[in-house]
Automatic annotation (TrEMBL):
InterPro entries: CoA-transferase_III (IPR050509), CoA-Trfase_fam_III (IPR003673), CoA-Trfase_III_dom3_sf (IPR044855), CoA-Trfase_III_dom_1_sf (IPR023606). Keywords: Plasmid, Transferase. Gene3D superfamilies: Crotonobetainyl-coa:carnitine coa-transferase, domain 1, formyl-coa transferase, domain 3. One of its GO terms (molecular function) is transferase activity. The keyword Mitochondrion does not apply. This is Caib/baif family protein. It comes from the Bacteria. Pfam families: CoA_transf_3. SUPFAM superfamilies: CoA-transferase family III (CaiB/BaiF) (SSF89796).
Length: 794
C-alpha cells in the first residue's frame, strides 16, 4: 500500500522535542527520515521517563523517533561537515538545530524546505530568554487560568508547547510542499514555541481586546464541575438548556424546580451546593456508568482517566488503538487516512545504526525546476473548502487553510447556528465589543469573529431539499469538506463520504469526532475540557491530593484544529501526487494523547500513575509559580541546572543559599522544597512580576511573568512577530485579531478580511461560485433556504 508521503527524504537534524515530533509525524505517513546525531547521541535519548524493562531506553526518545534511522555525524570534523552538506543537498525537508542558518541550506538546495523551531526565535525582544515549558505556558496566558484562585496557578503537564510547535512545523511543511508541487521551490518554515503557546490561548485575550475585561480565576464562566465516583473523577457540563436532562439522568428530578437551582442565575450562585448534592448521589457509582448515563441524555461529561487506565480503556481497545512495533508498545495514529493509513516501519533507531555514503546523497540532489507559479500567490491559493463546523476545533482547521490562501466557505443552517455566534444560553455581555450585544449579536461575538477570519458565510437550511441540493452543488466545485459535529451528521444529510465522492471523486472529507467514528464512546459529545479529562492529562495536573484540573480555556480545541489541518494537508499532498481524495478521521482525544505519549507508555508498562504535585517536577528545583506584587499576580522560576541555581541565588541577593546544605544540590533542594518555596516567595511577593522575570532572565535563569489577557495583548514579543492584525468588521468595529505561529519565508499566510457577517456571502456563492441562473438565484434567496439572520427557534 502506498503512503501519503512516499518519496520524501527528510534530514532530522533537530535536537528538540518539537523537531523530533514533527519528523516522527512525517515518518508515520511514509517519509524517509534520517536522524542526525552527535557522537554522544541526541539529548532526547537522555530525557526521562525511562523504561522499567530497559532502563537505558528513554520512552520520550522512543515515542518521538519510531520509524526513523540514525546516523552519527561529528560536525567538528571536515568529513562530518562534508557528509552533512551532501545530505542537505539531497533532502526534501531539513529540520535544523538553532545554530544552523537556514539560508545556508537554501543556498545549498533551493528546493529544500528548511525548518527552524526555537523557543523565542532568532530575533526579537526575547531571543536570549530561556524557555522551558513552564515559562512558555506562563507567557502564553494559559497558566493564568489554571488552578484555584488564591493558590499558585498551574502550568499544565508535560511539554505541550513543544509538541504544539512540532505540530505547527508539520503544518508549515505540508503547506510548503503543496506550493512546491507547482513552483518547484522550497522555503524556510519558522516556528516559535512561545508564539505557538499563545496561539492556543486566544479567547480571554480577544475578550480583553473587544471590551477591556480581564478574566481571573475568580470568574465562574464555564457551566461545569467535578464529582468523585467510586473509581475516579467525572466532569459534568451543565448547560442551562440541558438542566432537565441532568436532573432526569441523575434521578434528581426534585432539583429541577428547587428554588435554589431552577433559575440559571440563582443556580450559578448555588453551584457548590448543587455539586455537593450530585456528589452525594454518585459517590458509589462507577465513573463510566455515570458518564454513559449522562451522555445518553445528551449531557456532556467525561471521566478523568488516569494514564495507567488507558492501556485497558474499553473504548481505545475497541478501536484497536494501541499498537506494537519490534514487540514494544506505541500509541495509535494521531489521525486516520482511509487511502494512506499510518504504517510504523520500525522502532526508534539505535545510535548510528545507519552508515551514510555522501556520494549517494549528492546523486539525489534536488534541483528546482522552472516555476510556472507566481510567487505572489499564497501557498493554498486555488483550493476551496466547505466548513460544516461549529465552535473552535473545526473552524480552527478551516482558519489554518484560509490563512494560507484557500477559499473557505463557512456553512451554517439558520436553525443551527455556529455556537460561537449564538448559542442557546442567554447572550453574555463579555462576548461583545464594549459589552453590547447590539442588534446583530451573532455578528459581534469575539469568539466567532476570531476563528473565522478570511472566510465566506453561506447560510443554507439543510432541513430542506433545496438547501441540501445547493450544498451538493458546492461540493461539486470544492476540494475539501470539514465537519466537526457528532459522527453521523454528514450521513443524516445524505453527505456521507461515498455520496460525496459520487459528486466529486477526488474530494478530501475530514471529520473531527472527539472519540472517533467507532467504539463504545463514539457517540459521545465533548468539549476541550472533557477531552482533556479523557486523554489522561487532567489526572496528571492537580495540587497534591487535589482533584484533576483543566487547562483553560479549552486547550484541546485548538490542538484538535491543528491536528485536523495537519491531516487534511497530508491527504492533500497525496492527492497532488496521485489525484485521489480520501476520508480523514481526526479523533481529537487520541490525537491529543500524543502530547503525553511517554507518560502513557510508562504508565502502561508500570501500572503506576504520575503523582500530581502542582508545578513541581523531579528534574528541577525550584520549578514553580511564586507570588508577585498585586492581587493574584505570579512569576514562574525554573532552575534548569546547577549553574542556573547558583545564578538565581546571586540574582536575589542571597549567594549563600547556593552552598546551604539544604539547597546545595538538586536532591537536597527537592527534600527541602517547601522551605525553598517560602524563601523565594518572600523575595518575589513585594516585586513586580515583569521586573523579576527580566532580572532573572538577564542573570541566565529561566523565569517569566504569569501573563493575563492584558499582558498578552500588549506583548512586545508578539508585536515583533506580527502576531496581531487589525481588521475592520462591519458590525463589531476595528480590532486586532490573533494570527497563526507558522511563518513561511516565500509564501507567507495572512489575515486579509474579517470574519463574515451571517449570510453575508450568500449571493456571491450563488452567483460567482455556483454561477446559477438569475431566476434560480431569486428562488433560492427568497425562500426558506437562505437567511441573513438566524431563525427565531434556531
Amino acid at each position: 500500500m502506498s503512503k501519503a508521503l512516499d518519496g520524501l527524504r527528510v534530514v532530522d537534524f533537530s535536537d528538540t522535542l518539537a523537531g523530533q515530533f514533527c519528523a516522527r509525524l512525517l515518518a508515520d505517513f511514509g517519509a524517509e527520515i534520517t536522524l542526525i546525531e552527535p557522537p554522544e547521541g541526541s539529548p532526547i535519548r537522555r530525557m526521562p521517563p525511562f523504561s522499567l524493562a530497559d532502563p537505558a531506553l528513554s520512552l520520550r526518545f522512543w515515542h518521538l523517533n519510531t520509524g526513523k534511522k540514525s546516523v552519527v555525524i561529528d560536525r567538528t570534523s571536515a568529513g562530518g561537515q562534508e557528509t552533512l552538506e551532501a545530505m542537505l543537498c539531497g533532502a526534501d525537508i531539513a529540520l535544523l538545530p538553532e545554530d544552523l542558518d537556514p539560508e545556508k541550506v537554501m543556498h545549498l538546495n533551493p528546493a529544500c524546505i528548511a525548518v527552524c523551531i526555537s523557543a523565542f526565535g532568532c530575533d526579537g525582544p526575547l531571543k536570549e530568554w530561556r524557555g522551558p515549558e513552564i515559562v512558555l505556558q506562563a507567557l502564553s496566558g494559559m497558566m493564568n487560568n489554571n488552578g484555584a484562585y488564591g493558590r499558585e496557578p498551574l502550568y499544565g503537564v508535560g511539554e505541550r508547547a513543544s509538541f504544539a510547535a512540532g505540530q505547527a512545523a508539520y503544518i508549515g511543511i505540508m503547506t510548503a510542499l503543496h506550493e512546491r508541487h507547482s513552483s518547484g521551490l522550497g522555503q524556510i518554515v519558522a516556528i516559535d514555541a512561545a508564539e505557538t503557546a499563545a496561539a492556543m490561548c486566544f479567547p480571554y485575550v480577544m475578550r480583553h481586546i473587544y471590551n477591556g475585561s480581564i478574566h481571573t480565576r475568580q470568574d465562574q464562566t464555564i457551566p461545569a464541575g467535578q464529582v468523585k465516583c467510586r473509581d475516579g473523577w467525572v466532569c459534568i457540563w451543565i448547560y442551562n438548556h440541558r438542566w432537565r436532562a441532568v436532573c432526569t439522568a441523575l434521578d434528581l428530578l426534585p432539583l429541577e424546580t428547587d428554588p435554589r437551582f431552577s433559575d440559571p442565575q440563582v443556580r450559578r450562585a448555588n453551584w457548590d451546593t448543587l455539586y455537593e448534592i450530585i456528589q452525594d448521589k454518585v459517590a458509589n457509582w462507577p465513573a463510566e456508568d455515570l458518564v454513559d448515563r449522562l451522555q445518553k441524555a445528551q449531557v456532556i461529561a467525561a471521566k478523568a482517566y488516569r494514564p495507567s487506565e488507558q492501556i485497558h480503556n474499553r473504548h481505545l481497545n475497541g478501536r484497536h488503538y494501541w499498537e506494537k512495533v519490534e514487540d514494544r508498545l506505541i500509541l495509535g495514529p494521531p489521525f486516520r487516512l482511509s487511502a494512506t493509513p499510518r504504517v510504523v516501519r520500525s522502532g526508534a533507531p539505535a545510535l548510528g545504526a545507519l552508515k551514510i555514503d555522501p556520494a549517494v546523497w549528492e546523486a539525489k540532489s534536488r534541483q528546482p525546476r522552472q516555476s510556472s507559479r507566481s510567487s505572489q500567490l499564497p501557498p493554498l491559493d486555488g483550493l476551496r473548502v466547505i466548513e460544516i463546523t461549529t465552535a473552535w476545533a473545526g473552524p480552527m482547521a478551516g482558519r489554518v487553510l484560509a490563512y494560507f490562501g484557500a477559499q473557505s466557505i463557512h456553512v451554517e443552517s439558520p436553525n443551527r447556528v455556529n455556537s460561537w455566534r449564538l448559542n442557546k444560553e442567554r447572550p453574555n455581555p463579555i462576548n461583545f465589543p464594549d459589552g453590547e450585544p447590539g442588534s446583530r449579536p451573532f455578528d459581534r461575538s469575539f469568539l466567532f469573529n476570531s476563528q473565522n477570519v478570511n472566510k465566506l458565510s453561506c447560510i443554507l437550511n439543510l432541513k430542506t431539499e433545496e438547501g441540501r441540493s445547493t450544498l451538493r452543488r458546492l461540493v461539486a466545485v470544492a476540494d475539501i469538506l470539514i465537519c466537526n459535529f457528532r459522527p453521523g451528521t454528514l450521513a443524516k444529510l445524505g453527505l456521507d463520504y461515498e455520496s460525496l465522492t459520487a459528486i466529486k471523486p477526488d474530494i478530501i472529507v475530514a471529520e473531527l469526532p472527539a472519540f472517533g467514528g467507532s467504539g463504545p464512546m463514539s457517540g459521545y459529545a465533548a468539549l476541550g475540557p472533557t477531552m482533556e479529562m479523557a486523554t489522561g492529562m487532567s489526572a496528571m495536573m492537580a495540587y497534591p491530593g487535589g482533584q484533576p484540573e483543566n487547562s483553560g480555556p479549552s486547550y484541546l480545541d485548538p490542538i484538535g484544529g491543528f491536528n485536523a489541518a495537519a491531516a487534511i494537508l497530508t491527504a492533500l499532498h497525496d492527492r497532488d501526487r496521485t489525484g485521489r481524495g480520501q476520508y480523514v478521521e481526526v479523533p481529537q482525544v487520541e490525537a491529543a494523547m500524543q502530547f503525553i505519549g511517554a507518560e502513557l507508555l510508562l504508565a502502561a508498562e508500570s501500572g503506576v500513575d504520575p503523582l500530581p504535585d502542582g508545578n513541581r517536577v523531579a528534574n528541577m528545583s525550584p520549578h514553580d509559580a511564586f507570588p508577585a506584587r498585586g492581587e493574584d499576580q505570579w512569576v514562574v522560576i525554573a532552575a534548569e541546572n546547577q549553574v542556573q541555581w547558583q545564578a538565581l541565588c546571586s540574582a536575589i541577593g542571597h549567594p549563600g543559599l547556593a552552598t546551604d546544605p539544604r539547597f546545595s544540590d538538586l536532591a537536597a533542594r527537592k527534600r527541602h522544597e517547601t522551605e525553598l518555596t517560602a524563601i523565594l516567595s518572600e523575595w518575589t511577593a513585594v516585586r513586580n512580576k515583569h521586573a523579576v522575570a527580566r532580572l532573572l532572565q538577564y542573570a541566565g535563569v529561566a523565569a517569566a511573568p504569569v501573563a493575563n489577557a492584558a499582558d498578552v495583548a500588549s506583548s512586545t514579543y508578539l508585536a515583533h512577530r506580527g502576531f496581531f492584525t487589525e481588521l475592520d468588521h462591519p458590525d463589531a468595529g476595528r480590532h486586532r485579531y490573533p494570527g497563526l505561529p507558522i511563518h513561511l519565508s516565500r509564501t507567507p499566510g495572512s489575515q486579509r478580511r474579517p470574519a463574515p457577517q451571517f449570510g453575508g456571502d450568500n449571493r456571491y456563492v450563488l452567483e460567482d461560485i455556483l454561477a446559477l441562473p438569475a431566476l434560480e438565484i431569486a428562488r433560492v434567496s427568497a425562500g426558506d433556504v437562505m437567511a441573513t439572520v438566524p431563525f427565531p427557534d434556531g
